[in-house]
Amino acid sequence: MNHRELSVLMAGLLVTSLVTGIVAADPPRPGTEGNGLSENESATLWSRDADNYIGQEEYRQRYGENRSAVHQVANGTDITFKQPPATATTWTRNDFEDLDAGGPDTSLHPPHADLEDGVFIEDAHATIFAVQPSTRGHLESGETPLYIAPNGTMRGFADYRVRVPNGSSSGNTTISWSLTEHEIEEVRLKKDGETIAERDGSHTPALDYQIEDDWSANLTLEAEISARLKKTVRTDLGDRTNVDVTYQTESRNVSDSIAVEIYDLSASPYFAEYPNGDAGVAIFQSRPWQGYTLTDDGETRVRGIWRFYTARNTNWDTLVRSNRTDSATVQSDAIPVYVHAYPSRIGPRAEPVRDGPDLIDTWGTDRPSPVGTIGENINIDIVNQSYTTTYGVAVRAENVDREALQVAGIVRGVNASIAEPDRGSERQLRRSNLTVGVIKQNQSQATLRVELRDNQTGAPITLDESRQYPIGGTTRNGYITVADQRVETNASGVAIVPIDEPGIYTARYHPGSWLGHDPAYVSDTATARWHPLGTIDGWFAFLVEVGWQLIPFIVMFYAGRHLLRMLGPDDIFDSNP
Q1: What is the pLDDT of residue 23?
Q2: Which residues of the chain have pLDDT under 70?
Q3: pTM above 0.85, yes or no
Q4: How does DSSP assign 164-226, residue by residue?
Q5: Contact (CB, 8 A) for 434 and 488
Q6: Which residues lie across from 116 on neighbouring strands?
Q7: How many Cα neighbours within 13 Å face the side chain of 259?
Q8: Strand pairing of 366-367 and 241-262?
Q9: What is the CA 99 to chain-centroid distance, rounded?
Q10: What is the pLDDT of residue 64?
Q11: How many CB atoms lie within 10 A of CB 320?
Q12: Cα angle vertex 501, ends 499, 506, to 5°?
């Protein structure tokens, strides 16, 4: 079966489904349309397909050809990405060219279009097809912003039909109407009411835009539609005919709007050098972002919690074709595809996985799972419980090329500009000196004295875990664990810890992140041993306790010996032959 025959078959199936009330939802089969993508690339687009898997042999019998491994996998599940793919923009740009208007007597529009009627112009609309590059973010229920690149393209579709009045005749007068002109005069793109791009009229306008220094906006696609009709009135006066010609013109302004977030990424880096020569890097950005690379070859990288999938906008699965007398639903020849970002259960990770940088910290905003925003027929590894957005990610690595540092966003092609933090990017990272010893003890309990100091200066390190970073601040958080307790040091760098079980006790310093401290410290450990026998009082108590335990045995031994002496050996043993 060739591609043309397959298209006819799919169209027939679509008509059948519409007649029976079923809405078609299957996307084009990979490799059947020339949209600038390979079969493998187009197979990954359709995360909203039904994933009704068919085996290789059945596929070969049905379509008369083999399919690629990627196509086979995509037939049974959805494919996700570590970074926003270019496929959505490529497909949308090429598929948009297949969108055609209906002509002066017919209006073509998606079911969700906002239609307007005038005296002559009817079923008029201007509907946004896609804004790209962009990514739909799934942050939580009720919050799915569309992030768009500062420089991009809005594509739209505008159409209408012109109602030409029927002619009439009364007595010796005949009135007739004809359409002389109709057009889309101009198309405009507005940001919060201000025109930022415009072009001559087109049913399928593509408007390039550039938006700077803005956080969010309302974008509006606006089209001016006009029609000019000729009205002819003929009056038969017997010996002559009087012809009166007039013209009537109508204009309609139609529009469609969409709320967007301008994704102009700017990131703040922070650096530290560990005592052993390792490098610490932390990047902070107040919006969702993808991750960053640490070396010029791009092999060493870290990424946050966000992963990506691509899915079509189902509003464009079908179109409505309307004329003066009827309307019908038809299959759409153009389907826009968007990139979607979601928090993944895989979570933040560093690459290469085994010998790459160590992920030491992440921070952000706690949010509930956005699983309810994903919709049907999407099988991805989205978090199903509350999660923390990775607005900040910190790593420890052996090698970092600061000049090669690149921060990538969740919108394709948008990389962050690196901005020097107000307080500077360098953080001191020193060794700490942790000591622990037994200062007081008896047979039942002991007291440990834990002391934490700067190994370089000897100054005490005071801990206050109540403060939370990110970046900056003067108080120091962190804590020490010892004897299954979590303690903090006072202004003298000392913590007192009571214990009541003998054993070996290891104290460990868990420093607060170097992101929020300058200077900051690395971890340290110290060990102390306590047992009641380690003191004179402990030995005395031990001997007393043992003595009390032995008293019953001593009494029994003494009584036995005394009884033997009283009875004598002849009373105990029978000496008769």
Answers
A1: 42
A2: 1-26, 422-423, 465-475, 532-550, 553-555, 557, 559-577
A3: no
A4: PPPPEEETTEEEEEEEEEEEEEEEEEEETTEEEEEEE--SS-EEEEE--S-SEEEEEEEEEEE
A5: no
A6: 124
A7: 4
A8: unpaired
A9: 31
A10: 87
A11: 18
A12: 65
Closest CA to 107 of 164, 181, 161, 157: 161
Looking at residue 28, what DSSP letter applies? P
β 327-331/318-322 pair status: antiparallel
Residue 277 CA to chain centroid, in angstroms?
Answer: 34
Q: How far is CA 577 from CA 173, 224, 485, in A?
A: 166, 140, 77
Cα 376 to Cα 384: distance, rounded to the nearest angstrom: 15
Query: What is the residue whose two structure tokens read 């380690």?
Result: 534
How far is it, in rounded angstroms, from Cα 232 to Cα 165?
12
CA nearest to 432, candidates 451, 405, 408: 451
Give the up-direction half-sphere exposure of residue 450: CA atoms within 13 A in the CB hemisphere: 30
Cis bond upstream, residue 288 (ω within 30): no
Query: How far is the C-alpha of 510 from the C-alpha of 176, rounded, in Å?
Result: 90
Token reading at 307: 């992963």
Which pLDDT tens digit goes with each residue over 81-105? Answer: 999 999 999 999 999 999 999 999 9
273 CB-near residues (< 8 Å, 6+ apart):
279, 280, 429
**What is the rounded (10 degree) CA torsion for 342, 312, 208, 196?**
-70
